[in-house]
Amino acid sequence: MTTLSPLAAIAIGGILALWLAAAIWALMKGAQQQRQGAHAQDQLDRLTALIESAPAIVAMVRPDGRLEATDRLSTWLGLEQVPAFASELTGADGGLSAEDSAALARDIGAAQRAGRPFSRPVRALGSSRSLMVRGAPASPELAESGSVVLWFFDATESQSEILGLQAHVSQLRDALETLAGLIEAAPLPMWHRGPDQKLSLVNSAYVRAVDGIDAARVIHEGIELVEAVEGISPGEAAAQAALTGGPLERLVPATIDGERRTMRVVDVPLGEAGVAGFAMDQHELEQVRVELRRLEAAQRDLLDRLSAGVARFGADRSLRFWNQPFISLFALDAGHLADAPAFERVLDRMREAGRIPEHRDFPAWRAERRDWFLSPEPREENWLLADGTHLRVYAQPLPDGGLLMIFEDRTEQVMLSSARDTLLRVRTATFDNLFESIGVFSQDGRLHLWNNRFRVMWGVPEEMLAAHPRIDELMAKVQTRLAKPHQANVVRELVRAATVERKQRMGHVGFADGRIFEFAAIPLPDGNALFTMLDVTDSRKMEQALRDRNEALEQADKVKTAFVTNMSYELRTPLTSIAGFAEMMNEGYAGELSEAARDYVRGIVESTQRLSMLIDNVLDMTQSEAGTLAIERKTVDLAALARASAQRLEPDARAKNIEWVVDLQPSLGAVHGDARRIGQALDHLLENAVRYCGEGARVLIHGDGDGHKARLVVSDNGPGIDHGRQAARPGIGLPLARRLVEAHGGVLTLLSEPGEGTVAAMELPRG
């Protein structure tokens, strides 16, 4: 075995050490490069992931036409795999339309040759995507010369938005053209000013208003429509509108077609585009406003003069107007109303005054009335107040959202209506319960009203009368019920005379059953005619019976008069003999009589005198009833006659201790008549006064008169007729006195109250 020299060993050791050091350095360098490679790989992976997650796909086209791209491109293009060459991408099977493929191939070729970037929208046939392809030459650091980088963007949403924007732009363009045509055709002047506030556009109405030739000439010459007002020109007013950023309205004068007009000018700022303006002719409007104010004033004056209460509420439901009747009707305070109270508050005040109907739930009732503001139709209702007042309430919604309310006091009308209804019911009941048959015919001859007796009398059904037949139709229906059917023409003619000629006619007609009716046709004030028929069958029979009875009574009266006359004369003969013999015996022709016999004889004489007087009274009464009482006509001194009667009866009065007073005035005078008959009547009055007055009574004979008549009054303070005279013994004195006074054309008045006495006044005419 060979042994190494130390030098060789040292050399070998040195070589091994160097090798070891080199190996260690290599290992350390390798580890460092490995770490750098891993870091670079991580960065590559991150960049690859970043590119994969980008909204665009990048592809590289090499100079030899090779295509480098990710698999996402095949998904976007709807292909199974990514094309290997650009020719496959732009070929028939590249997923693009032929037109898009050809255009993309041209763009890629131009980019390779001339280095020109491009942008091309394409649509994938295998999907619904719209793509945007952007291409540019690759930088030398990225690839060799002639390479092209392609970026594929998904432009589906943006393309839809672009299409929508294009459609919107098209609509705006159409609207702009329409608006321009509308502005040109507008009847009112319109214009546009640029940022310098000079005219840049005017319409035809503006040109006509300023008497311009055309729009270009008006713009070039800067002809303004309106004048400067208070030193502010139209351009300055437009600048002020642009400065404030809001529309500016003003009323300015202008001369149009040679007439001064009031124009409302409106300047509308358009930002950087300038200011647009238009002008409206306010001349007629201002005149209408003046007329409206005049009309409102007249309307207020008219409403104040109405008897109905009127209140108008605005859209905010506050009271805007009221008239004086409204205040009076609801007892409201004008000062409170002047504060424009709300609708609800006005109802509250009306309730406090007791001028609205009572309701259990007043808030609900008030809410219902508040809904009247929103009602599309007018409302009407009736209010019955606690004091019996009837109000008709009419609520009319106004176009401006307000409410007009009218309150009409219908109390009197309701009362009149009630009275009318009552009157109609009373009239109907009266008509139906009258004994007469009543029918009212109108001017055209039709039956208008009738009562139940009219229907029953003619035997006509109610249905026929309800049809309001004409008089000729009615008579044709009922003429068979008449005893003489042709008399139907008489009835028809009478109704015609009453309705047409306005003449009243009467007559009678007989029915076939023997009844007799009296009828009358009477014109009424309203142009109609009243036709009445009364069944006089019984009255005719009664008249005949009464006529027969009257004849019998007249005959009996004649017999009675003759009997009384004969009896009076027959009684006078023996009575005269009795009286004569009694007077002879009283005078002693038959010898001296005892005192008792003399009393008997005097009683016989007095009785025969009284009986003679009664016979004379009966005879006078009978003659006066028969009208055969003889009355003389001579001048009679009533004072002398009254004194003689008073003297004759004064002894009887003294015997009863009666105060006898005679008061005859000079005005009593004289009358033309029969003194004996007047004295006879006065004697009867005095005899009654003396006979029925008690002890200590007072009798007054008074006489006075005037140029036309004389009056004799006999009064007493006796018991009166009811308690004294008629109860004691009735006689013919007073009836005979009345007959005697009436035979002279006078009047005998008798006044008597029980316990108050009696007054008998006899008035006689002077002639």
Structure, described:
This protein folds into six domains: 9-47; 54-154, 2-Layer Sandwich (Beta-Lactamase); 186-281, PAS domain (Beta-Lactamase); 288-415, PAS domain (Beta-Lactamase), CATH 3.30.450; 434-535, Beta-Lactamase; 630-765, 2-Layer Sandwich (Heat Shock Protein 90), CATH 3.30.565.10. Helices cover 49% and strands 22% of the residues. It is built from 24 helices and 27 strands. The strands form six sheets. Strands 2-1-5-4-3 form a five-stranded antiparallel β-sheet, sandwiched between helices. A five-stranded antiparallel β-sheet has the order 7-6-10-9-8. Helix 17 (471-478) runs antiparallel to helix 18, helix 20 (595-626) packs across helix 24 and helix 21 runs parallel beside helix 22 (675-692). The longest helix is centred in the last third of the chain and has 51 residues, at 537-587. The N and C termini lie far apart (224 Å).
The main sheet comes to: 5 strands, antiparallel
CATH class of the largest domain: Alpha Beta
Strand content: 15-25%
The CATH superfamily name of the largest domain is Histidine kinase-like ATPase, C-terminal domain
Can you tell me the CATH architecture of the largest domain?
2-Layer Sandwich
Question: Helices and strands: which structural class?
Answer: alpha+beta
**CATH topology (level 3) name of the largest domain:** Heat Shock Protein 90
Coarse morphology: rod-shaped
What number of domains?
6
* Uncertain parts: 724-730
Amino-to-carboxy terminus distance: 224 Å
The value of Rg in angstroms is 70 Å
Main sheet strand line-up: 2-1-5-4-3
Query: How many individual helices?
Result: 24
Count of strand segments = 27
Mean pLDDT: 79
Helix content: 40-55%
Organism: Sphingobium fontiphilum
InterPro entries: HATPase_C_sf, HATPase_dom, His_kinase_dom, HisK_dim/P_dom, HisK_dim/P_sf, PAS-like_dom_sf, Sensor_HK_Regulatory, Sig_transdc_His_kin-like_C
Pfam family, one: HATPase_c
Protein name: histidine kinase
